[in-house]
Amino acid sequence: MDDPYELSVGVPSAEDYRRLRTDAGLSDKAPEAVAIALPHTWHGVVLHHKGEPIGMGRIIGDGGTAFQIVDICVHPSHQGRGLGRRIMAALTEELERRAPATAYVSLIADGPARFLYEMFGFADTAIHDSIGMFRVMGP
């Protein structure tokens, strides 16, 4: 049987990016912020169903010492089919291929997504004397 999903390297348009995030229950981002961010993606993938973008994931970072996996999402009508795993597999394969062995790769896991990320070797950062932290700029 033919796979109705196609994974391509790249980033979605700014409009599709914002739609994918909000459809998947993630926060919206300002159009001007998205216009700056997307071209600075180190590696990204977009998942299409019948030509329509329905999922994505990106890696951002300095290209040598630090990377962060961001924007992993799949439209709710396509969830539960292993598509998030497919996106993560593509991203981690690229990290394994191009990132230096000493690179630090981080991500923020929302809710049950942590179980997906654990499948790819990610663990809680609250270990030893380190703890993950974040700050959102603005209101």
CATH class: Alpha Beta
CATH architecture term: 3-Layer(aba) Sandwich
How many domains, as an integer? 1
Instruction: Give the overall average pLDDT.
Output: 92
CATH superfamily: Gcn5-related N-acetyltransferase (GNAT)
- The outline comes out as globular
Return the structural class: alpha+beta
Tell me the helix content: 25-40%
> How can the largest sheet be summarized?
5 strands, mixed
Quick summary:
This protein has 139 residues and is an alpha+beta fold. The chain has helices spanning 14-23, 31-37, 83-98, 113-118, and strands at residues 5-9, 43-49, 52-61, 66-74, 104-107.
Describe the 3D structure.
This protein starts with a strand and ends in a 21-residue tail after the last helix. The longest helix is centred in the middle third of the chain and has 16 residues, at 83-98. It has helices spanning 14-23, 31-37, 83-98, 113-118, and strands spanning 5-9, 43-49, 52-61, 66-74, 104-107. The chain is 28% helix and 25% strand. The mean pLDDT is 92. The protein has a five-stranded mixed beta sheet with strand order 1-2-3-4-5, sandwiched between helices. It is an alpha+beta fold and 139 residues long. It contains four helices and five strands, in the order βααβββαβα. The protein has a single domain (5-118), classed as 3-Layer(aba) Sandwich (Aminopeptidase), CATH 3.40.630. It is globular and about 45 Å long.
